[in-house]
Amino acid sequence: MPDDPAVPLHLLRSVTEAVHAIGGKVAVHCQTAEGSRNAVLAGADSLEHGMHLDPALLDQMAAQGTALVPTLSVLVTQIDNLRTKDPSLRRDWLLSGCLGMAPLVRAAHEAGVTVLAGTDMFEFGKVADEVGWLIDSGLPVEAALGAASWTARSWLGLSGLADGSPADLVAFDADPAKDPTVLHRPSRVVLRGRVIR
After folding, report:
1. What is the DSSP string of 133-193?
2. Are residues 28 and 124 in the same domain?
3. Is the predicted pLDDT of residue 125 greater than 60, yes or no?
């Protein structure tokens, strides 16, 4: 909620330092300007949503390797519905946050921030939709595809296509870089070397 207090910076910084000390990553769910600011200043590894993030913080995010996971498929699909609601603090906060996401994603990419594809609401697993929204927001197709695959794996510390790597892959009947809609129709899914589909 817009009037909920953000996690204090000193506390978030302490948690982040402790998690980093044992080799972990910190993902912070951010929906307010203060929450997003505190997450960046605390050195969080990723901002989930990043609503109301001050674009002036994007250079710092890029420099410290903080990724943005905008979850556009959750947010921008609410815009038309929100516009039909009576004005209120919650509605206006959500609407302005949702409307600001596409420009934020473009600016983040241009600043060199790692943008990743993710979802966090039912139905889970619609990453293909998220890639489409990233493209619609101005990310180059290759960057949007990477946000859901090779870039995400690398950011998580997982290997890509290399000898000895887990055999995880998704195959398509057409090149997703030329037709991203094929992401909705995988022809083959292999997980840890086992054919799932």
Report:
1. HHHHTT--HHHHHHHTTHHHHHHTT---SSTTS---EEE-SS-TTT-GGGGGS-SEEEETT
2. yes
3. no
